[in-house]
């Protein structure tokens, strides 16, 4: 898939389909739409599927909810409920199962602060259940949470910190929240990916070096990711690709120019874009100007989704009551 | 200059020169380089110059300091001193002159928070000079400051708020700080424009409807602006333009394709880009991922520059002493 | 009332009653309890009442809501509705009446940040009604808001800033929100005073030098204040007073010591406390350790109360919908 | 030492001396004054000393620096250097020794946010030394840092989190930063305690249940604490004690009242104070109103002190250069 970077299985599939054909061996896909939210479930069933999409074997659920941009409080609740349902499909928790929620990312950098902000809004209960087991509501299950900060802040690989805590605490489930890079600007803040494969090394905005998954942590690990940026490089490159496609349509099939365009492969396109876009563009990201407000809204959505999924028979009103 | 938006006189000049020739009637330009900072002074001397560049008559000083990206503390001081010198060239203050510094922009939206952050770091003295005139250091002059917030927060045009305060306070000078949009990503946070024309309606990131200048406020008004975003639209469009230029070089001069490309004017390019980039892209901005840190650094630079310019015979150490 | 400082009419009345008798000439008081909130309405009707209580003539409504400390979301709504009702009793607004809400205080100092935080959560509409009158919901009325910052930040008396804006904007009503000092720790964050007398010079935590009221601004001015601190000095002094009262009870009526205690008047007590409490204590304040959370909660309560009072036929859900 | 709570060895010694006599068995004390900073070193040498002062055996260095209240930038540097020297006396680090700095406390509650703020300002290097050993300045040693958040935020005992990370990372030294409660308001923010005993369970503002020390972590652990609050209860009680002392002086030696006062022991005083101060006072704290600014200043002082102590031959300018 060349030099274009995506953390979304959905986009990996789209890229595959663009360049190949519709059927992907070892991959099963189903889609449905619920209250304005498009739910795509990509199941990578075999090593072949894994190789095709460049993503580890497992289940990837993607919610596409363009209405997020309106930041409507009622839709927020709808979306939280859908997220809760999808999380519940991936995990089995009993009354005593301890869940550790990990908020990845850097709280000082707005588009990377989603994970810490979700942790901040979470209904955390493990300590109450441990110290005051009798005073606690029956519907609560033990949830704990940490936002450890990124490598540049701590000097420690996030994976090392989490591994140390998991080894000590022995939770039954880890859920890691992360901000992702997307290929498409209309996905920023509006697409939510839930995967039972955990997090691979090098994914997310912050370039983790160590993965967070069942292999590294020793417990089932769910990853929830939301694209919050598109690399500016991607925009430049996509603009070029679309322009070339357009020219191909206009050029006479036997002209020399048509031949030139057709022969222009991935590598040449990359070389061209490197001339066109300034060198620094690689570190530049595209976000909505109101990214601060968007991140706050999505953090609320995810936190409520987790609160509904991890405790039992709770409404959002119940959760708000317990959090205060 | 079509649909491309720039708040920088420097870029207006570049655009003019690209499309026309080097000499611009009614405009005088001088340039110098001081300690790694390129200083360009564009003097728009006549209505003709004003029309050519699409900027009001007056003096525009632009500092280009790519080293800002290293966020080095020593360079920070160098740059503050240069800013102070350039401000002093544009204004004449005596011992009792009152300066009102206005921090424009929205503190909740990182790339638009530059103005409020500068105000936050300013050495404000007007109240001390008024209430305790005897206890005050001789080098201090009366400075006051306000960050009124944007229209969406206050429900009041920023210009109305400032006009009300200026009418009541009758300062001798207004200095307005604003975050700007640039055409080029390598200018983000690294170019500082100081202009004695004040601020025109519609400039800045926040789309002010009323200008802040000598006409509207009745007192001399300096505007200091720093580009903190590039509209994503600009990136897409520039990528296309460069690709077309490239194709023109490759195409045979008499081919039909060459003709097509040459005929592709501003309007057609705009139409094309509208097809290529998604509709929402207009509201999307390109920033470095570390925009939060960059804004903090630049706010420090500008605040120290103002502190040195508005008080007399001060060093940065003196300023720090007084601020605490 | 000596050296003890209070911004609450309720406490002024209590002090008066302690030192004198129950009936206060020129003052009418009525009380009621609604859903756990004690509502006291002190009406100072004449110059005599004004002199007795040391507060300007006018109406002071005090809500005592100790349940605030639980930070329960349901009670939050109840309280907002009561606040809205009481505000409506003091003001008459028609469809086009413009209200300017002023958030007094310093956003950098937690117990003084209540006013700015209320402004931050307000449904601000004046600009929409002005620029897009046809697209707006019929129930909205023009509200604008500003948190100008304190003297130490701006170098300008808050009263000067507001006077400048009011003269320019000519609103029909000003509502000023302020953090107050109380005499009693159990009032911190749990007592809300609404007064149609505006704000007197020297009141509030931040020591304003200029009042905000009908005389200074030229428009009706409501003040809403919430105690967020008790001066540490007050605690020391009250402890001493209570101890002395206790000793008086124990001492034999004709003993020399009893005489000494009885003779100990306000002045001697003040002299004594000055020996006992350290000099710096005057600047020290007593707050709950969780003052940050408490201020957030109370800011939500007040903002919703204002939103319900200033617009028409709104529910809190409606308000949330419009704010996003 | 009854019901009065102090985290400072210095205050434990003062209390002991008040109630007993000057010489404390098993405790050695030396004092010196350096550039306006009073340095007291309390060495608890034996179990007897440990019992007398109610603090674990070890070395406690206390810096008293009342000039902190002026928040002067020059004094800030002086104090950081003294802190660095004192830390160096307690630890032996070689070039490869890894130090883990732990910022205890709650970033959402101002007086408890000192630890996280110090971590935020630290020169963290472990990751650079690990991944780019050749590119790094010779004077840097591996430092890493974490602010894990408090029990109410994470649902996990802070001690458990740190133990997990320490077991995984195996640092050579742990330094824990914490906000403390003091008995005296004039110590708030102005006294710094450095102890090689680590942190005992139940100390600090946040009521930790598990200690952080060599026994629990398995590596040498330094604790650095700064009082940021006095419990309001302490103020009330101290006021009473001083008043009683005063009355004792005035009363005739053979009077009944004198006898009553003399007999008033610790328990009765506690009973009395419980009548005097309202029930909630126990949770109330006394802080300067500007606690936000004070915490920022002290966090800078401590962070620079650590930066100078943990790296080699560094100046504060060097540190600032590396941090940016």
Q: Can you give me a brief rundown of this structure?
A:
With 324 residues, chain A is α/β, with parallel strands linked by helices. In chain A, 42% of the residues lie in helices and 19% in strands. Chain A has helices spanning 9-19, 47-53, 73-90, 114-120, 126-131, 151-154, 158-169, 214-217, 232-250, 256-263, 266-276, 291-310, 316-323, and strands spanning 27-34, 37-44, 58-64, 99-103, 143-146, 173-182, 191-195, 221-231, 284-288.
The greatest interface between two protein chains, and residues involved on each side, is:
A-B, 48 and 48 residues
Class derived from helix and strand content of chain A: alpha/beta
Task: Please mark out the parts of chain A with pLDDT under 50 across 5 or more consecutive residues, or reply none.
Answer: none
- Could you tell me the strand content of chain A as a percent range? 15-25%
Oligomer: homotetramer
Give the number of DSSP strands of chain A: 9
The helix-strand sequence of chain A is HEEHEHEHHEHHEEHEHHHEHH
Number of helices of chain A: 13
**Proportion of residues in helical segments of chain A:** 40-55%
At CATH level 3, the topology of the largest domain in chain A is Rossmann fold
Biggest sheet descriptor of chain A: 9 strands, mixed
| CATH architecture designation of the largest domain in chain A | 3-Layer(aba) Sandwich
CATH H level, superfamily name of the largest domain in chain A: HybD-like
**Principal-axis shape of chain A:** elongated
Q: What is the top-level CATH class of the largest domain in chain A?
A: Alpha Beta
* Average pLDDT rating of chain A: 85
Rounded Rg of chain A:
21 Å
CA-CA gap between termini of chain A: 47 Å
Total domain count of chain A: 2
